[in-house]
Design brief:
5 strands
Length: 124
């Protein structure tokens, strides 16, 4: 329960996310990390995950493009778009694709709440 894949091109952010999720514990744990959308698409099938934390602005595939590819193969996959750059257009596109939550980078409590909520719903 609470198995999470982190996708972010910034290594420091991945370390911070891993630490935050590990510290939050209560059933949440990181089972994989990817530094790009392309890498996420490659490793996702090899991992048993309950949720994906996905950066939006990355070189190569954006978070939205990565989510679109993931969700085309696994509709309903719980994805949290975690980004410093969110506007109405991004939020609307995320919702249209089926991304479950958008959380602003830096809102670690909000991220943990979103993961717990998604994992509780999906794993119940």
């Amino acid at each position: 329960m609470g198995r999470t894949l982190i996708v972010d091109d910034d290594e420091d952010m991945r370390v911070l996310l891993r630490s935050t999720i590990d510290e939050a514990n209560r059933g949440l744990r990181v089972v994989g990390e990817a530094s790009s959308g392309e890498e996420a698409l490659t490793i996702r099938p090899k991992l048993d995950v309950d949720a994906i934390v996905l950066d939006h602005r990355m070189p190569g595939l954006s978070g939205i493009e990565t989510a679109k590819a993931l969700l085309s193969k696994e509709p309903g996959l719980p994805i949290v778009l975690y980004t410093a750059f969110i506007d109405e257009d991004v939020a609307e596109e995320a919702q249209r694709l089926g991304i479950r939550r958008c959380v602003i980078k830096g809102d670690m409590r909000g991220l943990i709440r979103a993961l717990r909520d998604l994992c509780d719903r999906e794993c119940a």
